[in-house]
User: Which sequence fits this backbone?
DNA sequence: TATAAATATGAATATTTATTCATATGTATA
DNA sequence: TATACATATGAATAAATATTCATATTTATA
């Protein structure tokens, strides 16, 4: 059994990081764009992006003096989709209500 | 965007809990069976199972004086499958090597 | 090439999460 | 119905993770 999935899931287990995923699901954007959108400090975003990138949940490209981050949709969208189904099927009365 | 996926992922982000998932992927079993198999203390297993159950990652049925836990394969197997693909495609040189 | 803009980094602290251990609760059966 | 077996629980502690803030790097341009 693969047991070291957990660094990957650890990223998705974090409120800020999952919010970043949510934003990048809509549009790729720079670090400061994310900081603005999410109303969080720049260094916080940078730290979060670093670990997301370590697990290939996001990708980065340089564009001028900005770094544009984008979501690895191939992996992440199907996972979120499964979670939506899971929620509606198994979490009717779920304690940890999954909604924002 | 659903932001409260993270209690769910938090479970998969934990080494013990993912080992439990690994065992239950093979066979359903009781708390003490798991404790034996994984060589961990019973209460540790119970605590872990409780939060896995809260997110419907595992199910439980009573059988005599034992409680038999089983994996929610419908949700979990596809997720693990996506992770396997992700690993082989994106994590060739990944820091957090995903293998046991 | 000095400067500003954009991002990253490190280390201290704070917060969250897990572990431990003693004990309580539930379940069957002698 | 007393006892053993199986599991759960609570609270203290330990460990892992995130946040903060000051500062270092990186990148483009005046």
Assistant:
């Amino acid at each position: 059994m693969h047991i070291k999935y957990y660094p990957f899931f650890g990223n998705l287990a974090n409120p800020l990081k999952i919010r970043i995923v949510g934003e990048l699901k809509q549009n790729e954007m720079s670090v400061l764009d994310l900081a603005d959108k999410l109303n969080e400090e720049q260094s916080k975003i940078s730290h979060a992006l670093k670990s997301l990138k370590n697990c290939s949940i996001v990708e980065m490209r340089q564009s001028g003096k900005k770094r544009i981050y984008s979501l690895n949709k191939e992996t992440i969208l199907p996972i979120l989709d499964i979670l939506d189904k899971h929620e509606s099927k198994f979490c009717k009365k779920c304690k940890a209500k999954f909604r924002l």
